[in-house]
Amino acid sequence: MMSSFHAIGLMSGTSLDGLDICYAKFTQTNSIWNFGILNCETLPYSSDWEQSLRNAVNLSSEELLKLNSDYGFYLGEKTSEFISKNKIINLDLIASHGHTVFHQPKNRFTLQIGDGRAIKSKTNKTVIFDFRSQDVILGGNGAPLVPIGDELLFSEFDACLNLGGFSNISLKRNGKRLAFDICPVNIILNDLALKLGKKYDENGDLAKSGMIDYELLEQLNQLKFYEEKAPKSLGTEWIKEQVLPLIKTQKPENLLATFTEHSAVQIAKVLDEFEIKNVLITGGGTYNNYLIEKIKAKTKTEIQIPKKEIIEYKEALIFAFMGVLRLQNLNNVLSSATGSLYDHSSGLIC
Protein backbone atom coordinates (compact mmCIF):
# COMPACT_ATOMS: atom_id res chain seq x y z
CA MET A 1 0.00 0.00 0.00
CA MET A 2 1.33 3.45 -0.93
CA SER A 3 0.68 6.82 0.68
CA SER A 4 2.00 10.21 -0.41
CA PHE A 5 2.49 13.63 1.18
CA HIS A 6 3.48 17.07 -0.06
CA ALA A 7 5.38 19.28 2.39
CA ILE A 8 7.45 22.46 2.60
CA GLY A 9 10.51 22.57 4.86
CA LEU A 10 11.96 25.86 6.14
CA MET A 11 15.52 26.01 7.44
CA SER A 12 17.66 28.86 8.73
CA GLY A 13 21.17 27.85 9.74
CA THR A 14 23.60 29.33 12.23
CA SER A 15 25.79 30.64 9.39
CA LEU A 16 22.94 33.03 8.37
CA ASP A 17 23.31 32.32 4.64
CA GLY A 18 19.56 32.84 4.21
CA LEU A 19 16.23 31.06 4.44
CA ASP A 20 16.13 27.68 2.69
CA ILE A 21 12.70 26.64 1.37
CA CYS A 22 12.16 23.13 0.01
CA TYR A 23 8.91 21.74 -1.44
CA ALA A 24 8.98 17.97 -1.74
CA LYS A 25 6.81 14.92 -2.28
CA PHE A 26 7.25 11.92 -0.01
CA THR A 27 5.87 8.48 -0.79
CA GLN A 28 5.71 5.46 1.49
CA THR A 29 5.32 1.97 0.07
CA ASN A 30 4.98 -0.51 2.93
CA SER A 31 7.86 0.66 5.16
CA ILE A 32 10.05 2.17 2.41
CA TRP A 33 10.17 5.98 2.01
CA ASN A 34 11.12 7.83 -1.16
CA PHE A 35 11.25 11.54 -1.95
CA GLY A 36 11.37 13.99 -4.82
CA ILE A 37 12.34 17.66 -4.52
CA LEU A 38 9.82 19.65 -6.58
CA ASN A 39 10.90 23.26 -5.92
CA CYS A 40 13.60 24.82 -3.77
CA GLU A 41 15.03 28.26 -3.18
CA THR A 42 17.34 30.15 -0.83
CA LEU A 43 16.25 33.66 0.11
CA PRO A 44 19.23 35.73 1.31
CA TYR A 45 18.47 37.80 4.38
CA SER A 46 18.44 41.57 4.06
CA SER A 47 21.19 43.27 6.06
CA ASP A 48 18.55 44.28 8.63
CA TRP A 49 17.27 40.74 9.09
CA GLU A 50 20.78 39.30 9.21
CA GLN A 51 21.75 41.81 11.89
CA SER A 52 18.55 41.20 13.88
CA LEU A 53 19.09 37.43 13.92
CA ARG A 54 22.79 37.75 14.67
CA ASN A 55 22.06 40.09 17.58
CA ALA A 56 19.11 38.06 18.95
CA VAL A 57 21.22 36.49 21.70
CA ASN A 58 21.78 39.97 23.21
CA LEU A 59 18.11 41.06 23.33
CA SER A 60 15.97 41.58 26.41
CA SER A 61 13.16 39.09 27.00
CA GLU A 62 10.60 41.58 25.70
CA GLU A 63 12.62 42.32 22.54
CA LEU A 64 13.16 38.60 21.94
CA LEU A 65 9.45 37.86 22.20
CA LYS A 66 8.78 40.56 19.62
CA LEU A 67 11.47 39.15 17.30
CA ASN A 68 9.96 35.66 17.69
CA SER A 69 6.64 37.01 16.45
CA ASP A 70 8.11 39.27 13.73
CA TYR A 71 10.27 36.48 12.37
CA GLY A 72 7.27 34.14 12.32
CA PHE A 73 5.36 36.63 10.17
CA TYR A 74 8.45 37.01 7.94
CA LEU A 75 8.61 33.23 7.45
CA GLY A 76 4.88 33.16 6.70
CA GLU A 77 5.11 35.94 4.13
CA LYS A 78 8.10 34.38 2.34
CA THR A 79 6.49 30.95 2.31
CA SER A 80 3.24 32.40 0.97
CA GLU A 81 5.18 34.14 -1.83
CA PHE A 82 7.01 30.85 -2.59
CA ILE A 83 3.67 28.98 -2.82
CA SER A 84 2.23 31.59 -5.20
CA LYS A 85 5.36 31.86 -7.32
CA ASN A 86 5.54 28.09 -7.86
CA LYS A 87 1.75 27.67 -8.19
CA ILE A 88 1.71 25.05 -5.44
CA ILE A 89 -1.70 23.43 -4.99
CA ASN A 90 -0.94 20.15 -3.21
CA LEU A 91 0.42 20.95 0.26
CA ASP A 92 -0.23 18.95 3.41
CA LEU A 93 1.97 20.93 5.79
CA ILE A 94 4.76 23.43 6.36
CA ALA A 95 7.55 22.34 8.72
CA SER A 96 9.72 25.13 10.12
CA HIS A 97 13.01 24.70 11.93
CA GLY A 98 13.09 28.37 12.94
CA HIS A 99 16.31 30.19 13.80
CA THR A 100 18.35 29.08 16.81
CA VAL A 101 19.08 31.79 19.38
CA PHE A 102 19.92 29.73 22.47
CA HIS A 103 20.93 26.09 22.67
CA GLN A 104 21.79 24.90 26.18
CA PRO A 105 20.67 21.27 26.50
CA LYS A 106 22.62 20.80 29.75
CA ASN A 107 20.38 23.50 31.23
CA ARG A 108 17.32 21.84 29.63
CA PHE A 109 16.40 24.58 27.19
CA THR A 110 16.80 25.52 23.53
CA LEU A 111 15.14 28.29 21.54
CA GLN A 112 14.34 28.46 17.84
CA ILE A 113 12.44 31.65 17.07
CA GLY A 114 9.75 32.05 14.41
CA ASP A 115 6.28 31.54 15.85
CA GLY A 116 4.49 28.83 13.86
CA ARG A 117 1.12 30.43 14.53
CA ALA A 118 2.30 33.54 12.65
CA ILE A 119 3.37 31.32 9.72
CA LYS A 120 -0.09 29.72 9.72
CA SER A 121 -1.81 33.12 9.77
CA LYS A 122 -0.01 34.07 6.54
CA THR A 123 -0.36 30.74 4.71
CA ASN A 124 -3.55 29.17 6.08
CA LYS A 125 -1.78 25.79 6.09
CA THR A 126 -0.98 23.27 8.81
CA VAL A 127 2.33 24.32 10.37
CA ILE A 128 4.67 22.21 12.50
CA PHE A 129 7.48 23.93 14.40
CA ASP A 130 9.65 23.79 17.55
CA PHE A 131 11.17 20.38 16.79
CA ARG A 132 13.99 20.55 19.36
CA SER A 133 12.48 21.53 22.73
CA GLN A 134 10.79 18.22 23.53
CA ASP A 135 14.01 16.30 23.04
CA VAL A 136 15.88 18.63 25.41
CA ILE A 137 13.11 18.23 28.01
CA LEU A 138 13.56 14.44 27.64
CA GLY A 139 17.25 14.77 28.51
CA GLY A 140 18.57 14.88 24.95
CA ASN A 141 20.82 17.33 23.13
CA GLY A 142 17.98 18.48 20.88
CA ALA A 143 20.43 17.83 18.04
CA PRO A 144 21.20 16.53 15.58
CA LEU A 145 17.69 15.85 14.28
CA VAL A 146 18.37 15.05 10.62
CA PRO A 147 19.49 11.44 11.34
CA ILE A 148 15.87 10.27 10.98
CA GLY A 149 16.07 11.42 7.34
CA ASP A 150 19.50 9.84 6.90
CA GLU A 151 18.06 6.59 8.25
CA LEU A 152 14.92 6.52 6.08
CA LEU A 153 15.85 8.56 2.97
CA PHE A 154 19.65 8.16 2.54
CA SER A 155 20.35 4.69 3.91
CA GLU A 156 22.55 3.72 0.94
CA PHE A 157 25.44 5.74 2.41
CA ASP A 158 27.65 4.53 5.25
CA ALA A 159 27.45 8.02 6.78
CA CYS A 160 26.05 11.49 6.07
CA LEU A 161 28.15 14.56 6.88
CA ASN A 162 26.75 18.08 6.89
CA LEU A 163 29.11 21.05 6.54
CA GLY A 164 27.04 24.00 7.75
CA GLY A 165 27.60 26.42 10.59
CA PHE A 166 28.75 23.33 12.43
CA SER A 167 29.73 19.98 10.94
CA ASN A 168 27.68 17.01 12.08
CA ILE A 169 27.67 13.36 11.12
CA SER A 170 25.13 10.54 11.14
CA LEU A 171 26.07 6.87 10.88
CA LYS A 172 24.78 3.40 11.77
CA ARG A 173 26.50 1.34 14.48
CA ASN A 174 25.29 -1.89 16.06
CA GLY A 175 21.85 -1.50 14.53
CA LYS A 176 21.36 2.07 15.87
CA ARG A 177 21.72 5.48 14.25
CA LEU A 178 24.49 7.47 15.96
CA ALA A 179 24.86 11.18 15.27
CA PHE A 180 26.71 14.12 16.75
CA ASP A 181 28.27 17.50 16.04
CA ILE A 182 31.96 17.32 15.10
CA CYS A 183 33.27 20.89 15.07
CA PRO A 184 32.47 24.45 13.98
CA VAL A 185 32.88 25.19 10.27
CA ASN A 186 31.08 28.06 8.50
CA ILE A 187 30.05 29.83 11.69
CA ILE A 188 33.76 30.65 12.14
CA LEU A 189 34.95 30.71 8.52
CA ASN A 190 32.19 33.09 7.38
CA ASP A 191 32.86 35.45 10.30
CA LEU A 192 36.56 35.57 9.45
CA ALA A 193 35.79 36.13 5.74
CA LEU A 194 33.59 39.10 6.71
CA LYS A 195 36.67 40.78 8.19
CA LEU A 196 38.15 40.65 4.71
CA GLY A 197 35.03 42.09 3.10
CA LYS A 198 33.65 38.75 1.86
CA LYS A 199 30.44 36.98 2.94
CA TYR A 200 32.24 33.63 2.82
CA ASP A 201 35.56 32.13 1.77
CA GLU A 202 34.76 31.16 -1.83
CA ASN A 203 36.43 27.84 -2.73
CA GLY A 204 38.60 28.30 0.37
CA ASP A 205 40.84 30.70 -1.59
CA LEU A 206 41.34 33.05 1.38
CA ALA A 207 42.37 30.17 3.64
CA LYS A 208 44.70 28.90 0.92
CA SER A 209 46.48 32.28 0.89
CA GLY A 210 47.11 32.21 4.64
CA MET A 211 49.66 30.48 6.87
CA ILE A 212 48.70 27.80 9.39
CA ASP A 213 49.55 28.68 13.00
CA TYR A 214 50.46 25.24 14.35
CA GLU A 215 50.53 26.39 17.97
CA LEU A 216 46.96 27.69 17.67
CA LEU A 217 45.97 24.55 15.75
CA GLU A 218 47.15 22.41 18.65
CA GLN A 219 45.17 24.55 21.14
CA LEU A 220 42.02 24.14 19.05
CA ASN A 221 42.50 20.40 18.65
CA GLN A 222 42.87 20.02 22.42
CA LEU A 223 39.48 21.57 23.28
CA LYS A 224 37.68 19.25 25.72
CA PHE A 225 34.60 18.85 23.50
CA TYR A 226 36.60 16.67 21.11
CA GLU A 227 37.30 14.17 23.89
CA GLU A 228 33.62 13.78 24.82
CA LYS A 229 31.69 10.73 23.67
CA ALA A 230 28.62 11.00 21.43
CA PRO A 231 25.85 12.01 21.50
CA LYS A 232 26.97 15.62 21.85
CA SER A 233 26.14 18.94 20.23
CA LEU A 234 27.57 22.45 19.81
CA GLY A 235 26.02 25.91 20.03
CA THR A 236 27.03 29.55 19.66
CA GLU A 237 27.58 29.81 23.42
CA TRP A 238 30.39 27.24 23.17
CA ILE A 239 31.95 29.25 20.34
CA LYS A 240 31.97 32.41 22.48
CA GLU A 241 33.40 30.68 25.53
CA GLN A 242 35.91 28.26 24.01
CA VAL A 243 36.90 29.34 20.49
CA LEU A 244 36.69 33.13 20.12
CA PRO A 245 39.17 33.84 22.96
CA LEU A 246 41.76 31.77 21.07
CA ILE A 247 41.43 33.38 17.63
CA LYS A 248 41.32 37.13 18.22
CA THR A 249 44.90 38.17 17.70
CA GLN A 250 45.95 37.23 14.16
CA LYS A 251 45.44 38.15 10.52
CA PRO A 252 42.12 36.78 9.18
CA GLU A 253 43.89 34.93 6.34
CA ASN A 254 46.05 32.99 8.81
CA LEU A 255 43.09 32.29 11.06
CA LEU A 256 41.13 31.01 8.05
CA ALA A 257 44.02 28.73 7.09
CA THR A 258 44.35 27.45 10.65
CA PHE A 259 40.66 26.90 11.28
CA THR A 260 40.14 25.19 7.90
CA GLU A 261 42.96 22.82 8.83
CA HIS A 262 41.40 22.31 12.27
CA SER A 263 37.99 21.44 10.76
CA ALA A 264 39.58 18.99 8.33
CA VAL A 265 41.58 17.32 11.12
CA GLN A 266 38.53 16.82 13.33
CA ILE A 267 36.29 15.58 10.50
CA ALA A 268 38.90 13.14 9.15
CA LYS A 269 39.56 11.86 12.68
CA VAL A 270 35.89 10.92 13.08
CA LEU A 271 35.70 9.30 9.62
CA ASP A 272 38.71 7.13 10.43
CA GLU A 273 37.67 6.37 14.01
CA PHE A 274 34.37 4.89 12.81
CA GLU A 275 35.94 3.28 9.72
CA ILE A 276 33.48 4.98 7.35
CA LYS A 277 33.65 3.45 3.85
CA ASN A 278 31.73 6.19 2.03
CA VAL A 279 30.23 9.45 3.19
CA LEU A 280 27.65 11.77 1.59
CA ILE A 281 28.68 15.40 2.16
CA THR A 282 26.13 18.22 2.00
CA GLY A 283 25.75 21.80 3.24
CA GLY A 284 27.36 25.06 2.15
CA GLY A 285 30.83 23.92 3.19
CA THR A 286 30.73 21.33 0.39
CA TYR A 287 31.57 24.18 -2.02
CA ASN A 288 34.75 24.97 -0.06
CA ASN A 289 37.08 23.05 -2.39
CA TYR A 290 40.11 23.68 -0.18
CA LEU A 291 38.36 22.18 2.87
CA ILE A 292 37.17 19.15 0.87
CA GLU A 293 40.71 18.61 -0.48
CA LYS A 294 42.06 18.78 3.08
CA ILE A 295 39.54 16.20 4.31
CA LYS A 296 40.28 13.87 1.37
CA ALA A 297 44.02 14.08 2.07
CA LYS A 298 43.56 13.01 5.70
CA THR A 299 41.21 10.01 5.32
CA LYS A 300 40.71 6.87 3.23
CA THR A 301 36.93 7.35 3.30
CA GLU A 302 35.34 7.72 -0.15
CA ILE A 303 33.84 11.21 -0.41
CA GLN A 304 30.48 11.43 -2.24
CA ILE A 305 29.27 14.87 -3.41
CA PRO A 306 25.60 14.79 -4.54
CA LYS A 307 23.74 17.07 -6.95
CA LYS A 308 23.30 20.73 -6.03
CA GLU A 309 19.71 20.53 -4.71
CA ILE A 310 20.73 17.85 -2.19
CA ILE A 311 23.88 19.76 -1.16
CA GLU A 312 21.91 22.91 -0.46
CA TYR A 313 18.50 21.68 0.66
CA LYS A 314 19.00 18.35 2.44
CA GLU A 315 18.29 19.85 5.88
CA ALA A 316 15.17 21.71 4.73
CA LEU A 317 14.07 18.51 2.95
CA ILE A 318 14.48 16.46 6.13
CA PHE A 319 12.58 18.97 8.26
CA ALA A 320 9.74 18.70 5.76
CA PHE A 321 9.98 14.91 6.19
CA MET A 322 10.01 15.27 9.99
CA GLY A 323 6.78 17.26 9.65
CA VAL A 324 5.24 14.42 7.62
CA LEU A 325 6.19 11.91 10.32
CA ARG A 326 4.90 14.21 13.08
CA LEU A 327 1.56 14.64 11.33
CA GLN A 328 1.15 10.85 11.52
CA ASN A 329 2.44 10.75 15.12
CA LEU A 330 5.39 8.61 14.00
CA ASN A 331 8.78 8.92 15.69
CA ASN A 332 10.88 11.62 14.05
CA VAL A 333 13.65 11.99 16.64
CA LEU A 334 16.09 9.16 17.41
CA SER A 335 17.28 8.89 21.02
CA SER A 336 20.44 7.11 19.84
CA ALA A 337 21.37 10.34 18.03
CA THR A 338 20.32 12.92 20.62
CA GLY A 339 20.74 11.08 23.91
CA SER A 340 17.11 11.55 25.01
CA LEU A 341 15.22 8.97 27.07
CA TYR A 342 13.49 7.39 24.07
CA ASP A 343 12.58 7.86 20.41
CA HIS A 344 9.68 10.27 20.05
CA SER A 345 7.46 12.29 17.73
CA SER A 346 8.42 15.95 18.16
CA GLY A 347 7.06 19.29 16.94
CA LEU A 348 4.18 21.59 17.83
CA ILE A 349 1.25 21.42 15.38
CA CYS A 350 -1.00 24.36 14.57
From TrEMBL:
Decide whether keyword Transferase is in the record.
Answer: yes
Q: Gene3D superfamilies in the record, alphabetically? A: 3.30.420.40
Q: Is-annotated flag, keyword Signal?
A: no
Q: Which domain of life is it from?
A: Bacteria
The record's keywords, sorted A to Z, are: Kinase, Transferase
| Any Pfam family | AnmK
Which GO MF terms are attached to this record? Answer: ATP binding; kinase activity; phosphotransferase activity, alcohol group as acceptor
Q: Name a biological process GO annotation.
A: amino sugar metabolic process
Looking up NCBIfam families in the UniProt record yields: PRK09585.2-3 (NF007144)
Do you know which PANTHER family this protein is assigned to? ANHYDRO-N-ACETYLMURAMIC ACID KINASE
Query: What protein am I looking at?
Result: Anhydro-N-acetylmuramic acid kinase
Species per Swiss-Prot/TrEMBL record: Epilithonimonas zeae
